[in-house]
Amino acid sequence: MSANERVVLVARKDPAELEERFQSSLEELQSLTETAEGEVCKIITQKRDRVHPATYLGEGKLQEIKEAAEENEAELIIFNDELSPGQLRNIQDIAEVRVIDRSQLILDIFAGRARTKEGKLQVELAQLQYLLPRLSGQGTALSRLGGGIGTRGPGETKLETDRRHIQRRIDDIKRRLDAVVKQREQYRKRRKENRAFQVAIVGYTNAGKSTFFNRVTDSRSFEEDLLFATLDPLTRQMSLPSGFQALVSDTVGFIQDLPTTLIAAFRSTLEEVTEADFIVHMVDASHPDHIQQEKTVLRLLEDLGAAKLPMLTVYNKMDLLNEDFIPDSFPSITVSVHDSIDLKRILHKIEEVLKEEWDEYDVFIPASEGKRLQQFKTYSMVTSLTFHEDKEGYALHGFIHPDHPLKHQIY
């Protein structure tokens, strides 16, 4: 895309919508545009009860948008809603400037961010599914996809406007993704057989998930103050204070009004979450709309069928708060993940929450059974360990997952 393309943003406010929600959605559109390296030169909003079926906004407003684009030498107009194929065409005819919508913008950012083969395939699939119904009237547009926001992506420039070609490509990608999903299932099954304890970090985009992930696993996942910095799920090992070992996964950030094609495409990435034993939900407590963001994530977890999992809500970015903070969810903890003491507090809190969920045990292990002792240390939370000389062995007290195979060795 041409660097710093000049952009006019357009948003319609439904009179029933709360002002805060409208503003935060608009700010989000602005940071999405900046993430895609666009330069916002003008924002135009209109209160309007209903969407105009043919042109989304009224004729007069579109003229105003056209003039604003000319005055500001804007090369692109971005609407804060998903536009129908017909609306896109009609607006473009009136404005005589390239027009895209929020969904296309998000797809564009995802296209620039995907690193793994699977991530790239998922983005391409979402882009093609988005493109298919919007082909007519794009005749020339596709062949001259030279650059600019909303035109990024894997094999786009080679795309003929031929629907059959696109449909074939969609079927091909779906087949390849199925193979990846099967591979991942195999991998998950192996992890389950080894009874590795899975922690998934979820949260709204830019809440601090990758920062937390990097600090607790000593890894270098991509960390940036940008929306969707992480697209491909990473899994690494982490140790809790008791010595208990867990696998932790960093997931893609959620966002409100995610394009439907994307939710479908990222289903398999998000399904990592449903496989987890525990969820750490990161919330940017300093964000004015954090309650809405928290609800967006909880709704998505519900849709994925992961709402029943034990969860700790971590209210992050404490250092940016000026007033007293009242948490919305429990159990929760309020921290700044950049603070090493706070990091330890989170890990202790995870253990606390687990103790509530797990079974308490006492077991005696003879000193000669070193391997068994090691298993208990790795797969359970050992809270005390005493060596008894007279009995030549260790008395362990701790907590263990109710379904862990080690449990039958206790009684």
Question: What can you see in these coordinates?
Answer:
The chain has 411 residues and is of the alpha/beta class. The protein folds into four domains: 6-110, 3-Layer(aba) Sandwich (Rossmann fold), CATH 3.40.50.11060; 114-138 and 159-194; 196-356, P-loop containing nucleotide triphosphate hydrolases (Rossmann fold, 3-Layer(aba) Sandwich); 358-409, Ribosomal Protein S8, Chain: A, domain 1. It is 41% helix and 21% strand. The protein has a six-stranded mixed β-sheet with strand order 6-7-5-8-9-10, sandwiched between helices. Strands 2-1-3-4 form a four-stranded parallel β-sheet, with helices on both faces. β1 (5-13), α1 (19-35) and β2 form a beta-alpha-beta unit. The protein starts with a strand and ends in an 11-residue tail after the last strand. Mean pLDDT is 82; it is low at 137-146 and 155-159.
Residues in β-strands, percent: 15-25%
Biggest beta sheet summary: 6 strands, mixed
Helix/strand-derived category reads alpha/beta
Q: How far is it from the N-terminal to the C-terminal residue, by CA?
A: 64 Å
Q: How much is the average pLDDT?
A: 82
Q: Give the SSE order as H and E letters.
A: EHEHEHEHHHHEHEEHHEHEEHEHEE
Task: Name the shape in a single word.
Answer: elongated
Radius of gyration: 25 Å
**The CATH C-level class name of the largest domain:** Alpha Beta
Question: How would you name the CATH homologous superfamily of the largest domain?
Answer: P-loop containing nucleotide triphosphate hydrolases
Number of strands: 13
At the fold tier of CATH, the topology name of the largest domain is Rossmann fold
Question: Strand arrangement, largest sheet?
Answer: 6-7-5-8-9-10
Low-confidence stretches: 137-146, 155-159
Helix tally equals 13
Helicity range: 40-55%
